[in-house]
Design brief:
heterodimer; A: alpha/beta; ten-stranded mixed beta sheet; about 20% strand; globular; B: about 650 residues; 29 helices; 2 strands
């Protein structure tokens, strides 16, 4: 009897064919958001291109966890892909954190063009670690939201500020800039802001609107502190299971959707701020002299952090690109 | 003191230990002491350095990982002492042979689930972390190896307990080898993923993995039934939930490591969860001293001739505590033993009522400001947090009033006076006597309300306060009480955390299979009446409350039901109150409500007794929740 059972199991093991590819993709963005819509569009496009062979199942709303959770799920094969920001990408290769160093880019144009130029290097860095980036885009710019007006770096240095998440590197960077950061443990950030443990928080406007920070931190600084890079990455194991002839088409479709999203990025941010202003958000403008002070102090802090938090080579590459871009502009 | 004897108290009745046992006990106590010491010291340090300019930051992840170690350690002690929570229906069976057979079946099931958890955690630890991920300079892979080590320990202890000295060699070999093989088969995809990282032909492995999935699809239901059967045979609850998760994930071809990923995710988070063991320790310390007597004395002598005042104090303090923790289960662990002592000491309520009240009283707190659950719902549903706070006030008070009404009725019927006619100096004396106990809740609320400390730091400060107050000032804590409290708190933390971790894995299964979406689609296509929708929502949320914690439920379920609520014209504020009140009721819904398990475990009371205790409370709360659900006015009365 035992032998027959063993034989049956063995036969079963041998006759079952390989099924079509299902890609489980985790994302922290809400389903009802421009990012959620873009991911759904991507899933539909890939299904069409592959004649139904590649199905993307999206896990919106951070149900698959935050970025380190999603990365762990990818490594154990539970997820095949994830939408990551600079923080998550920095967990794969710390050098990528350099792209979100404070105030090294003067505007969105500089950031976008630099990303285009360093893209091959970034891709190589991820591929050698077992991840295939499908597309890159800007996830937004971090701003200060505070209980009272904040425009200068001196004011920021006297605040109890936090960043959602638990990145030791980011906190060290904050300290290097002379801030007094408070460890923000996930959801507790919201209660900390309400109780007064924290009075200033660094966030992208879209997330701030989602968390309704305009109630607890009604002052918004127009200073674009740092950009957040976004990317959809698949595990290379999954990417290689996709027929080679389909890959360029899939990449092109993803790039098209990302470009559309990028072209709307400024509007998305403006819409979020306008919505918050309706509910009492006060927009504070940073003066030119204050901006110059921010830039000077941030540059010093980034220099100090090279080799520890930020990657020296990548930083130098970015600086070379920026110098060229700025001289061309002039 | 008339509290239910704790496991530590019971151990005092046993014969004196041998030298080897004494050494093991002492080592075990030292480990508990170190883990609790660090869990208290680090949050304290973190609170202090906040006020020191340029002081190095305390990495919050360290506290989280301490919780991981503490839960594994607690689970090991609970295994040694056979104190994992389980439903034992056959323990009093008279037929010895049948009883032995049942016991062996349960042990056998338990053993192979332990092996499967070992393999799952080994693969998780080796695969899930990047080479650069570190904690305090130690690679996270090394830190996470504590998980397979913990499960290996548990397996070896269970194996030793299963194989008695008199048994024949072939049975010992069979038990060891067969459980290892079955456990490994259950976790084959994890092991294959681990092995395929080498130079193996991954196509072959993929085929094997797909074939294995197809086989497991067939075997899922028989395995689930077998494990459920094991639940009634005394299989520890965490193994029932973990075992079911293992076979369900196997049935859809997922790596078993996902169970460990979800466990790691919840245990190493270090946020609200880290406060549980510390508040539990506080609760044990207070109940070991004369604190319940002092509070009873205060309630008896003050507050006038108010019938049901002890129940009132219990309901109010538990509900208010829950508004801060956002988790009613934490309240049971933190305040349960102290308030149970107070209720039992007062003869008006009796045992059944007291257990029922302690288990159900924290629930309404979830609806009252500044509940974190309300804040999160409001953020997810995109409604004003302030409006949501306003919406929760009346429903929260109604649920509290329901409980309070039961307290008055019980106190009135018992005929026992809760009030003692005393002179004003005696009143003053009872107040002075209990001032140390009264400072504790005040300290907690002040720290949390002013933002001086977060929940974990507050819990750590509470431990220090209780130790100083009861140990140094009152001198009511001796070294034995401290040892017993440490061991009991470690067991409770380990026992509870491991159940929470396994439940989290099970709820992720529902996410992975898209079950909530399917259910919502079904409702969308089959239900036309808003009343029918609310009724169905009540039933579904009760079920969700039994298996999911509030925060997971908000993230997973709320985005799905919002569009449905919009279709049926239900205000999002009212929908939020329906959602949270039903979830809160789900926690006390027999037979699997999470708070029932916590109470049973914390008070060492059999689940079957607790079902009887909770029933009247459940029914009253059910009626009130239905009322709140069907009459939107209660939620919208304060909304302009």
């Amino acid at each position: 009897m035992k032998r027959i059972t063993m034989l049956l199991i063995l036969v079963l093991f041998l006759i079952v064919p390989l099924s079509s590819l299902q890609i489980k993709l985790g994302s922290q963005a809400p389903e009802a958001s421009p990012w959620g819509d873009a991911l759904k569009e991507l899933a539909a496009e890939w299904l069409k291109i592959s004649n139904g062979e590649i199905q993307i199942r999206i896990f919106h709303n951070a149900v698959a966890g935050n970025e380190d959770d999603m990365l762990r799920k990818m490594r154990i094969g539970q997820l095949q892909g994830a939408v990551l920001t600079t923080n998550g990408l920095g967990l794969i290769d710390k050098a990528l954190l350099t792209l979100s160093a404070p105030m090294i880019f003067k505007d969105r144009n500089e950031f976008g063009k630099t990303i285009e130029l360093v893209k091959p290097d970034l891709e190589n860095r991820l591929v050698v670690k077992g991840y295939q980036p499908i597309v890159w885009n800007t996830a937004g710019w971090i701003h200060f939201f505070s209980k009272t007006k904040l425009t200068s770096i001196e004011q920021a240095r006297n605040r109890k500020l936090t960043i959602p998440g638990n990145s030791d590197d980011l906190f060290k960077m904050m300290q290097t800039m002379g801030f007094k950061p408070i460890n923000g443990q996930g959801l507790e950030v919201l209660t900390a802001l309400n109780s007064g443990m924290v009075d200033t928080i660094l966030l992208v406007p879209f997330a701030a609107a989602g968390y309704q920070l305009f109630g607890a931190a009604p002052h918004f600084s127009d200073l674009e502190f740092a950009p957040i890079l976004g990317s959809i990455v698949l595990s290379t194991q999954t990417w290689t299971r996709i027929p080679a002839n389909l890959r360029p088409q899939l990449m092109a479709a993803a790039a098209k959707i990302a470009a559309k999203l990028d072209s709307r990025a400024v509007d998305i941010e403006k819409e979020a701020i306008t919505a918050m202003v309706k509910y009492g958000l006060i927009v504070n403008r940073t003066s030119q002299s204050e901006l110059a002070e921010w830039q000077k102090e941030a540059a010093m802090a980034v220099q100090k952090s090279l080799g520890t938090i930020y990657d020296k080579d990548l930083f130098n590459t970015i600086q070379t690109i920026l110098t060229r871009l700025r001289s061309n502009r002039e | 003191m008339e509290t239910t004897p704790t496991t530590a108290d019971q151990s005092a009745l046993q014969p004196p230990p041998t030298a080897r046992q004494a050494a093991i006990t002492s080592a075990s106590l030292t480990i508990s002491l170190i883990l609790f010491g660090l869990s208290t010291f680090l949050p304290l340090l973190s609170a202090i350095v906040r006020f020191v300019p340029n002081a190095p930051l305390i990495d919050g992840r360290i506290t989280g990982h301490l919780m991981l170690f503490l839960s594994l350690w607690g689970a090991i002690i609970a295994t040694v002492r056979k104190e994992h929570l389980s439903i034992q229906l056959f323990q009093n069976l008279k037929f010895e042979r049948l009883r032995n057979l049942i016991q062996r079946t349960s042990w056998y099931l338990g053993l192979f689930i332990s092996v499967a958890l070992f393999w799952a955690s080994l693969c998780f630890a080796l695969l899930a972390f990047g080479p650069d991920e570190e904690l305090f300079g130690i690679p996270l892979t090394v830190v996470a190896m504590s998980m397979p080590l913990g499960f290996l320990f548990i397996y070896l202890i269970e194996l030793k307990q299963t194989i008695s000295k008199g048994q024949v060699l072939w049975w010992k070999l069979f038990a060891t080898i067969s459980t290892f093989i079955v456990g490994a088969i259950l976790t084959l995809p994890s092991i294959l993923t681990l092995v395929s990282l080498g130079n193996f032909d991954s196509e072959w492995f993929n085929s094997l993995s797909d074939a294995w999935t197809s086989t497991m699809e067939w075997l899922t239901m028989p395995f689930v039934i077998l494990i459920l059967f094991g639940a009634f045979l005394g299989l520890p609850l965490y193994k029932v939930i973990g075992g079911i998760s293992l076979v369900l994930f196997a049935g859809i071809g997922s790596s078993a490591s996902i169970i460990m990923e979800e466990s790691y995710r919840i245990l190493s988070n270090g946020s609200i969860l880290a406060a549980i063991p510390l508040f539990t320790l506080c609760g044990f310390l207070l109940s070991h001293a004369k604190s319940p007597q002092r509070i009873v004395g205060l309630i008896e002598k003050t507050g006038g001739r108010f019938t049901g005042k002890t129940a009132f104090v219990t309901i109010l303090s538990m509900a208010v505590f829950t508004t801060f923790t956002g988790a009613s289960g934490v309240t049971i662990l933190a305040l349960g033993s102290l308030l149970l002592g107070v209720l039992l000491k007062n003869k008006s309520y009796g045992e059944t009522f007291s257990y029922g009240l302690i288990t159900s009283a924290p629930g309404p707190g979830i609806l009252l400001p500044p509940s974190l659950a309300i804040i999160l719902y409001a953020s997810t549903a995109q409604v004003s947090i302030l409006d949501m706070f306003k919406a929760g006030i009346l429903p929260g008070l109604i649920l509290m009033l329901g409980l309070f009404g039961m307290g008055i009725y019980k106190s009135f019927r018992s005929g026992t006076k809760e009030h003692k006619a005393v002179s004003s100096s005696e009143k003053k004396g009872s107040f002075t006597d209990a001032i140390g106990e009264l400072i504790l809740p005040l300290l907690i609320f002040v720290l949390l309300f002013t933002g001086a400390a977060n929940l974990v730091e507050t819990a750590a400060l509470s431990v220090v306060y209780v130790l100083i107050y009861l140990g140094l000032f009152r001198r009511e804590l001796n070294i034995n009480a401290l040892k017993a409290s440490l061991t009991s708190a470690a067991i409770i933390a380990g026992g509870v955390f491991i159940i929470l971790a396994m439940s989290r894995a099970l709820s992720y299964y529902s996410v992975d299979t898209g079950f909530p979406q399917l259910l919502v689609e079904w409702i969308r296509s089959s239900i036309a009446s808003p009343w029918m929708f609310i009724l169905l929502l009540n039933l579904i949320l009760l079920l969700v409350g039994c298996i999911m914690d509030v925060y997971s439920a908000i993230y997973i379920i709320v985005p799905l039901i919002l569009p449905l609520g919009d279709i049926f014209g239900i205000s999002r504020l009212h929908l939020g109150i329906i959602f949270l009140s039903n979830l809160s009721l789900g926690f006390i819904t027999p037979p699997v409500g999470l708070n029932l398990f916590l109470s049973s475990y914390r008070f060492n009371r059999p689940m079957t007794n607790l079902y009887k205790d909770i029933l009247p409370f459940f029914l009253i709360q059910l009626i009130l929740v239905v009322l709140i659900s069907f009459v939107p006015w209660f939620s919208l009365a304060f909304i302009p």
